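ERR on first pass: missing label on line 2. Operator R.T. fixed the label and resubmitted. Corrected input:
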Amino acid sequence: MADDALFEFLHMEIVALVYKEQATREDIDKERVTCVSTLDAMGFRVGQGMIERFTKDCPTFKDDLDLMKFLCKDFWSTIFKKQIDNLRTNHQGTYVLQDNKFALLTQFSSGKQYLEEAPKYLAFSCGLIRGALSNLGLESVVTAEVSLMPSCKFMPNLKSLIN
Amino acid sequence: MADDALFEFLHMEIVALVYKEQATREDIDKERVTCVSTLDAMGFRVGQGMIERFTKDCPTFKDDLDLMKFLCKDFWSTIFKKQIDNLRTNHQGTYVLQDNKFALLTQFSSGKQYLEEAPKYLAFSCGLIRGALSNLGLESVVTAEVSLMPSCKFMPNLKSLIN
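pass 2 clean. output:
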């Protein structure tokens, strides 16, 4: 219990730091894009590192759906202490990973009040997925969507396949 | 195992970010002090948050030595996955917590090669201890010392006592 909190607190500090650093600079216009991409890049490197440890003794994956299932179960559980609740795909490289109670959003009150703050708290995790996929040979673009907190959807779109 | 890695990777990213942000600024002179204090402040807030969760259902502590033992065992184990190896005190408010294999330094080669990089990787943890102590009613100054990686000493100096 206190264990999960460490990651959540650290994540909060990172978001706060990135936004604070940017706020003291002059190029306020670019602020939002830069902050999100800084957080995404941090997530990317952490995702790469994590998946390397994870898959060290793993058999290879049958296909990209198989790999995505692994991300939704093992990878997600270790980081966010629960599995992804729902995985969908159009079988053409687009996936939708739905987490009904996303750990990094549970601190917010549910409802729409803080909805516009949500992207700040999803950027790191988008990078995390992108980094993990990248180290497994899949280039992707990952976006996220929130309609009602603390539920959210991550949508990795694979640009190339392993095979 | 992959669990601990998450904290270690995140910590690396934070250190890198703080130093990168500072490097792009003009006041290079103040660089070292500012970076260390930014990291210390982040650690402080995380330490406060963590200890709150931890001591929610705890009995109160007998004295400050009792409290320090708790930090060395329970608190340290949750965060760094091992206990402090040695705790010493002069019974006048100065403590020395020695960790012979400090998690955030194990990535470095042992020996003296990277010794001057060490303070970067200790600042957050100094703040962590200071934050935890602060929420338990003890104001302190925490310094750290490394002579041979990955071993290091944290030295909280208590300014006031609970009683």
